[in-house]
Amino acid sequence: MGLREDLERYREVGEQRRQDLEEFIQYGDLGGSDADSVRVPIKIVDLPEFQYDRLDRGGVGQGDAEPGDQVGDPQEADGDGDGDEAGEEGGEHEYYEMDPEEFAAELDDRLGLDLDPKGKKVVEEIEGAFNDTARRGPRSTLDFDHLYKQGLKRKVAMDFDESYVTEALRVDDWGPAEAFRWARADNIPVSKAWLEDRARDLEDPERWASIDEMEAECDREPTNVRLQRGGAGRVPLRREDEQFRHPEIEEKRQRNVVVVNIRDVSGSMREDKRELVERTFTPLDWYLTGKYDRADFVYIAHDAEAWVVERHDFFGIQSGGGTRISSAYELADDVLAEYPFSEWNRYVFAAGDGENTRGDTEDNVIPLMRAIDANLHAYVETQPGGSAGGGTHAGQLRSEFDDSDQVAVTTVTGESDVLDAIETILTTEDED
């Protein structure tokens, strides 16, 4: 194995030693990534390098000085000696960069998910295979195979052994009427007019004493034997059997998604709660970005009122106001008017510590959640350390939407709960 192969092998080992995805989501630095690139730290593996032998620089203990002589003149040191400059520059770190599609695939594998987003908005209509048919069309598109098969079916259905039926006309005291009744009873598709014509043309008939004698002496030849011997012959083609081939029109649908992220920014949402919201919502954003062709994100902050903010402000902002969660859902309803549910997949994710104005959850939030069409509504309750908060919002939602496939409610008490919360949210959505 050469040096180049060694180097490639070390690089592979380095990528394999990147921080585990679960560990990264729960404890890693999520802020180093952006919407299009997820940067996962690599546990450093030092690559091999050449070091030159230093013995050719004179060796140890060589020179003109005597033991105890001063080596060189004292030099003034740069800086004031207080050590402020030491360690100011951060050490270099290596990262494994994955796009949201790879992140989503790995998270699917980790959680055992198989979310297959449906496209909604039609962006293009294209002609597919010539599998559709119509009663009219250009002669060049006539489906002759179908026309011939229909004619052949008709010929087989109308075919009968003419020689065999003719013998029935030779039975004593039988004429076309008796022969017709006998043929129909035996499911022989002969017409009365054909029998009458054949009876007129019959010369010097040899009489059978009875029809039983005729059937015992004569064998009826099956249709398939005649076709194999003489071919299909003239196949009757009819205009009503004509059909014309047309290409299927295939609709190409774009998989669009809009995600509305809602966060309580009231005074009770301390930093540790905000960090749990960021650690839960950020991987969800990456996941949905990787699953859809186009993903739009709207960030709504609220205390007693609600307003739209930029993503970089969403996780850090804090106010001193009270809490009225319905204000955020009212704003979300207005925002989503620009994203018709017929054309967009829609997710509404909210997070807070469960506190809300008395009566607001039951009187306003729950009706709004029912009214806002979405693939999924989710509420993430943050309770660091498992401390019981004074809020009842999450409990009321659980009671109201206990068996719903469109509402997920989960509680996060620390980083170790984050992945379970994400799994709860992503496995709640009804595929239909």
Automatic annotation (TrEMBL):
TM region(s), chain numbering: none
Region listing for Disordered, in residue ranges: 53-98
Mind telling me which InterPro entries this protein's record contains? UPF0229 (IPR006698), vWFA_dom_sf (IPR036465)
Classify the source by domain of life: Archaea
Acidic residues bias locations: 75-89
Which NCBIfam families does the record cross-reference, listed alphabetically?
Answer: PRK05325.2-5
- Protein name from the UniProt record: DUF444 family protein
**Native source species:** Halobacterium bonnevillei
